[in-house]
Amino acid sequence: MAANKAFNATRGDKIFDVCNTIIMCLVLIVTLYPFLNVLAISLNESSDTVKGGIHLIPRAFTLENYSVIFQYQGLLQGAQISILRTIVGTIFGLISASMLAFTLSRVDFQARKFISTFLALTMYVTAGLVPTFLLIRDLGMINSFWVYVLPGVVSAFNVFIIRSFIDGLPYALQESAKLDGANDFTIYLKVILPLCKPVLATIALFLAVGQWNSWFDTYLYNASAPEWTTLQYELMKVLQQSTQQSGAVNANDMAKQMASISPESIRMAITIVVTVPILVVYPFLQKYFVSGMTLGAVKA
Prior knowledge:
Blueprint: H1 2-42, H2 46-49, H3 64-70, H4 75-105, H5 112-122, H6 129-138, H7 156-167, H8 172-179, H9 184-195, H10 197-213, H11 216-221, H12 231-245, H13 253-259, H14 263-296
Helix pairs in contact: 1-14, 3-14, 4-7, 4-10, 4-12, 7-14, 8-9, 10-14, 12-13, 12-14
């Protein structure tokens, strides 16, 4: 009887493993296929792409699509500003969110409920595009780099995620640090931050992706300042120019070359250019990302 139960359990485990493997393979295919399809189209000749039928492997391999994109004048300047805003915006966002989250996690902070409620309201109610533009204009941040950083330096969502993680830490750690003579800033810097590496890495990934992919704020506030342009905004202009020049007759050399490339090929190449940097960074933060999201969600 025991042998039959062990055999059934072993057979059931094998069946579960096979089904689980099949499901995971299907999920992997569904996840990877769109990216591989975009990569294949971006590496395929534009004239051949129009025929369709490109799936995982380019039918007529070429790097012409990327060569057209990288010949654009403002691309290098835009890449530098995008990297700078991603680094600065992520650092400022982490500092502000972690300091506010630490303050709201303190049980002896009297206004914690009021500020938490106020922050939560900002997630549901916004001023709107026009009032926001007028505020930023009155603050003198039009045509400046800080318009990328300061307006979104405090995010209620990020604060709540970090605070939930801190609430899951033993409060006795802070009490023992106080007994040793540490002040609040020392506790935050030397006790809380080292323990918050998983959630900080998670928030850093959120902030970095948001900063890297953002282009609409450049369009609104820095369109007339080429020195503060971003990579995504320049690539958007490349795509727009390729669409407009596709039917042009009198055009310069750059426009003529872009006119020979289909907008779909340009679009796929642009997608790869803006996606690869994030894909390169993500593996280094993956283990922190998973643990940060699970542990940070233990307490609300």
